[in-house]
Design a protein that fits this description.
The chain has about 230 residues and is an alpha+beta fold. It is built from 11 helices and 7 strands.
Length: about 230
C-alpha cells in the first residue's frame, strides 16, 4: 500500500521530493544531512527540496542547539502531508455498521445514522439561523466544500436551486448503506427549510449527486414532504 501511495505522490511532487516524503513517513524525523545521504544528493540540493516542501505545507522542522556549532534542523511531516497517504476510514465505517446490523439489527443501524445526522444538524443549524433561503443554500454548499464534496450550486429561474456534489467522501459506505444518503437528503431539508429532491445519485452509478432544492413556499404549495 505504501508503494501505491508513493506512486501517486510522484505524480504530485518531483521525484526527489516524493522520496523525501516517503523517508520522513518511514522514519518520522530526519536531518537534511541524513536525507541527503539517503537520496544521494548534495546537502544544498536537499535543502532546496525541503524549502519547497515547507512552502507547500508538507514539511516542518524543529531546531536543536549543538553546543557552539550551528543548530541542527530535524524535519518531519505536517498533518497536510499525512493526507497524501491512503486511509481506510470507509472500510472501518462499513465494518462497524455491518457489525451493528449483525449484533443489534437494522433498527440500530438507522439509529446510528440518524444520530450522526442529528449531530451535524446541531452543529450547522446555528450558522444558518437568520439567513434567507439563498444564503442558507450558499452556506450549505460552503460546508460541503469544506468536507470534500466538491459542491457547487446555481439559482434557477423558478426560484429553486440545483446543488451538485461531484465527489462523495463516503461513497463506499453509501453503496452498502443507502440509508446514509436518505439521511443526507433529510438533513438538507431540515437545514434549509425547503423541499429537497434527489435528481442524481453517485451510489447508483451517476457521475455526481444532484439535488433540486425548492424554497419553503414552493414546498408548501406542492403539498409534498418527501
Amino acid at each position: 500500500m505504501l508503494w501505491a501511495a508513493m506512486t501517486a505522490l510522484t505524480g504530485l511532487l518531483k521525484e526527489h521530493r516524493s522520496d523525501i516524503i516517503r523517508l520522513l513517513k518511514q522514519h518520522g524525523e530526519l536531518t537534511s544531512e541524513a536525507l541527503a545521504a539517503a537520496l544521494g544528493l548534495t546537502r544544498v540540493s536537499t535543502r532546496r527540496h525541503l524549502e519547497i516542501l515547507e512552502r507547500q505545507g508538507y514539511v516542518t522542522y524543529r531546531t536543536v542547539a549543538q553546543g557552539r556549532g550551528r543548530p541542527c534542523h530535524y524535519y518531519s511531516l505536517t498533518a497536510r502531508a499525512a493526507e497524501l497517504f491512503p486511509r481506510s476510514y470507509d472500510v472501518l465505517a462499513c465494518e462497524l455498521l455491518q457489525m451493528t446490523r449483525q449484533c443489534f439489527g437494522e433498527e440500530a443501524v438507522l439509529r446510528v445514522i440518524s444520530a450522526r445526522a442529528a449531530q451535524v444538524l446541531r452543529h450547522l443549524a446555528p450558522h444558518l439561523a437568520g439567513l434567507d433561503f439563498p444564503a442558507r443554500v450558499a452556506k450549505l454548499a460552503e460546508f460541503l466544500i469544506e468536507r470534500g464534496y466538491l459542491a457547487e450550486y446555481e439559482a434557477l429561474p423558478d426560484g429553486s436551486f440545483r446543488l451538485i456534489e461531484r465527489n462523495c467522501p463516503t461513497i463506499n459506505v453509501a453503496k452498502t448503506f443507502s440509508e446514509l444518503c436518505a439521511q443526507e437528503r433529510q438533513l438538507y431539508e431540515a437545514l434549509l427549510g425547503g423541499q429537497v429532491v434527489r435528481e442524481q445519485w453517485m451510489a447508483n452509478g451517476d457521475g455526481a449527486c444532484g439535488y433540486r432544492i425548492f424554497p419553503p413556499s414552493a414546498a408548501a404549495s406542492s403539498g409534498e414532504t418527501a
